[in-house]
Amino acid sequence: MSSLLVGAYRPAETLLHGLPAGAKLLALLVAGPLVAVVRGWQSALLALGVAVVLLALARTPGRDLVRALRWLLLLVLVLGGWLTRQEGWPRAVETVGDLVALVLLATVVTTTTPVDAMLDVVERALEPPSRLLRRLPGHRLRIDPERVALAFSLVLRTIPATIGLAEETRDAARARGLERDVRARLTPFAIRVVADAQATGEALHARGVGDD
After folding, report:
1. Distance between CA atoms of residues 96 and 39, nearest Å
2. Which residues of 127-155 are buried (b: 16+ CB within 10 A; e: fewer)?
3. Residue 138: what pLDDT?
C-alpha cells in the first residue's frame, strides 16, 4: 500500500487545499458516523460519489490513487463477493461502498492538509479539556496536548516510513532473485523497523521528551 493513504500531503492550489484544517477534520469526524449510521445501498453509492468528486477537486492523481488502493480493492472484492453470497448484493454494496467512501474521504483530508496543520488543530482542540481537568480539585487525570500531538505525529510518520522500509526490502530481495524467499524479506525488514524505532526513541530522548 502506498503512503498516499496515510498522510502524503500534495501541495496544490485548490478549494480544498485552501479550507482550514479544522473544518476538514470536523467534516471527516461527522462523515464517519453519518456514513455508518445511514443504511441502504443508495446512501453508500451517494457517499462514494461525493468522495470521488472531492478527490477530483483535490486533483489527486488517478494513477497514484489506483496504485495505493490496489490491495484495498482486492480486499473489498473478496468482502463484496462473500457478502453477496451470504446476505445479497444490497448489503454487499452498502458495506463495501461505505468502507471505500470513508477511505477516500480520509485520503482527501490527508492529501490536502499539511501534517503540521492537523497537529495544531489536535493540540488546540485538547487545550480546553486539559485546562478544565487542571482546575478540578484533587484531579489525577490530565491531558497533555503537546504529547498527544506528538503521538499523532509519530503515528503519521511511522506508518509511511514502515511501508517505505517494506518496499525497499522487497526491492532488495527481488534484485537478488529472492523475492519468493520469505526469510530474505521478513528478516531484514524486521531488523530495519526495530533500528528505525530505536533511532526515533534516541532522537526523542536527546530532546528531553519523556524525561519528566
Report:
1. 12
2. eeebeeeeeeeeeeeeeebeebbbebbee
3. 66
Amino acid at 23: A
Closest CA to 200 of 209, 189, 191, 188: 209
> Which amino acid makes up residue 82?
W
Cβ distance 66 to 12 under 8 Å? no
The closest alpha carbon to 108, from 177, 206, 212, 12, belongs to: 12
Q: Sort 24 into a burial class: Cβ within 10 Å, 0-12 / 13-18 / 19+.
A: buried
CB contact set of 54 (below 8 Å; sequence gap of 6+): 16, 104, 105, 108
d(CA 154, CA 161): 10
Residues 80-109 have pLDDT tens digits of: 888 898 889 998 999 999 989 988 898 888
Predicted local distance difference test score (pLDDT) of residue 4: 52
Q: Which residue has the higher pLDDT, 192 or 7?
A: 192
Residue 122 in this model has a pLDDT that exceeds 70: yes
Q: Residue 172 is placed in which grid cell?
A: 532488495
Q: What pLDDT score does 1 carry?
A: 47
